[in-house]
Amino acid sequence: MCLLPKQYMREQKYMEISKDPIFVPGVWGPYFSAMVPGFWLNEGGQSVTGKLIEHMVQGHAAFPELQAKASARCQSIYAYLNSHLDLIKKAQPVGFLTVDLHVWPDFHGNRSPLADLTLKGMVTGLKLSQDLDDLAILYLATVQAIAFGTRFIIEAMEAAGHSLSTLFLCGGLSKNPLFVQMHADITGMPVVLSQEVESVLVGAAILGACASGDFTSVQEAMSEMSKVGKVVFPRHEDKKYYDKKYQVFLKLVEHQKEYSAIMSGD
User: Fold this and answer.
1) Do residues 110 and 150 make contact, with C-beta atoms less than 8 angstroms apart?
2) CB under 8 Å to 92, separation ≥6 — which residues?
């Protein structure tokens, strides 16, 4: 399975290929030879995931303080937030900071696997605190929510017949180590990063090399031109914690539908 987020502002795409066509409810496809010749493609997605992270961070009262401190260190706001989380985690793993804070990430509706544009975002566990610690933890909970959305899509694909064991991540969000580690921990799968940071451009070069006749097939060009970079493994000792948070994640959308039914009823 390959995750292809293009930029922070764009949606996160989930590309999975198979030898035989597999129909997955809430996931586009299957399309024959759409990505790799001779294989069937399924494509899922989460809408504007980068924009969601930006929305949660920039809408917080502590954002001006974050900007000033990140600028003073010549860091991006996300690099600063990641380092700040490491400071406040104390003896526990970073992910455990959100034990009482949970996010449902469909602020722009759900593309996959529910395909429900009426769904809204949800946050439970908010406090009156508006300091930088609070902002960092809300940012973490949002990143985790996107990773739980990834797990939700993976489980839908597997239920339909796909067999998945590894995530290949590329694009803007793959440059954020917290985002990558949360995906590994929450899905329980290793995350493989490309050696080339701008791997989408490598894909275009692969197609060009095939068109020019330098390679006889896309598969041959892929084998020669794309290289594995870093592999990030899940911390299996944290599995029980993330399984519990995933149960809460699924309860959030279940409750939202219940609330909608109450409000639309007589």
Assistant:
1) no
2) none
